[in-house]
Amino acid sequence: MRERCKRDDGTAVVEFIFVGVLLLIPVLYATLMVMRIEAAAMASTQAVREAARAFMMADSRIQGIQQARLATTTALGDQGFSVSSDALRIDCSTRCLEPGTQIRVTLDWAVDLPWLPAPMAERIHGFPISAEQLLTVDSYRDSVA
Predict the structure, then answer these.
(1) Which of 84, 86, 92, 140 is the residue whose CA sits 20 to 30 A from 66?
(2) Structure confidence at residue 1 as a pLDDT band (50, 70, 90)
């Protein structure tokens, strides 16, 4: 019996699986979260770009805000994300939609990180994502109210 316990037959497989699982799960989780954050950053960049274009193409400021929100929702929705309507902010350097006016579209939100352990989930409420787009209204555009 004692001789049998000293032999290492089969223990390498068990050790490899045990250590492999211990290392593989955190590395896999970190990789998935980095990919999720990167997807959110790229979706935000596209969302503000499309929102700025939609705002600039509108006939009025109110219509522009509606179109910018719709563009943002669509761009983020394509990647599986959603944000509240107050995450999008549109600022104009002078009167909005006048030729030469600079439009700054900003999107600030936090992407959630699923499957965090409970102690970490209480402290981390998502990863902050911010994107900004600056456009100048075309000088040949008609001024609108």
Answers:
(1) 140
(2) low
Considering Cα of 75, then 80, then 81, then 84, what sign does the dihedral take? positive
Residue 99 DSSP label: T
In the block, which residue shows the tokens 């994502």? 129
**Distance in angstroms between the alpha carbons of the first and the last residue of the chain:** 93
CA 80 to chain centre: 10
Closest CA to 51 of 90, 101, 15, 96: 90
Q: What is residue 86's DSSP assignment?
A: G
Consecutive H or E run containing 123: helix 118-123
Helix (H, G, I), strand (E, B) or coil at 131: strand
Which two tokens mark 22? 């211990």
